[in-house]
Amino acid sequence: MRADQVEYIIFDVETTGFYPKDGDRIIEIAAVKMKNGQVVDTFESLINPERDLPLAAQNINKITPDMIVDAPTAEKVLPKMVDFIGGGCLVAHNIKFDMDFLCYQLAVCGRRLNEATPGIDTLKMARKFIPHLTSHKLTSLAHFFGIPINDAHRAMADTHVTMLVLKFLLDMAKAQEITQFSQVLSHFGVAKPSFQIEPVSQGLLF
Q1: Which residues carry out catalysis?
Q2: Domain residue extents for the chain
Q3: Can you tell me the mean pLDDT for 29-33?
Q4: Are 112 and 106 in contact (CB under 8 A)?
Q5: pLDDT (tens digit, 9 = 90+) per residue, 154-186?
Q6: 47 alpha-carbon distance from chain centroid
Q7: Could you name the CATH architecture of 3-188?
Q8: Which residues pair with 45 in a beta bridge?
């Protein structure tokens, strides 16, 4: 299948910190489903992490405790995200970060991604096709491609920027005769993490 015919699920998470194994949790998730270069569906939700929200995280993403206190928990939101992904290919910028959080918290819920769900990293693509850039951060790529930035470090805003960056990078791949999805996956795919979570006596804790 050609790379431009694949259904891509571009997603982003905002979190309480950097390490899910150490107790950090997702506080917002957003995804855009793109096929043939067009948005066909979206998914977005704040998530109550059931833990304190560090000030450092609030300063980055501007999500405050009062915004998430009545939000649904991960065990209610993330299974819906799995359904949204369906048979698509996950895409994120520095996808290991987002995938680690998604897969870890799914494991806590007793769920996991479909084994066949592929993942592609736009950071790996950018480093391959634009090696001369001094920074390959999402904001740097947005500036390079002339993509406007609104509400940086909010999940849906970053997802839309990543989607537009992906379009440019797929065009660059095509120019280098990387036209088949199997080729894109071979060059820029990532393995899904696997987490084994032991349930506690009173149920699964976040």
Answers
A1: 153
A2: 3-188
A3: 98
A4: yes
A5: 999 999 999 999 999 999 999 999 999 999 999
A6: 15
A7: 2-Layer Sandwich (3.30)
A8: 29
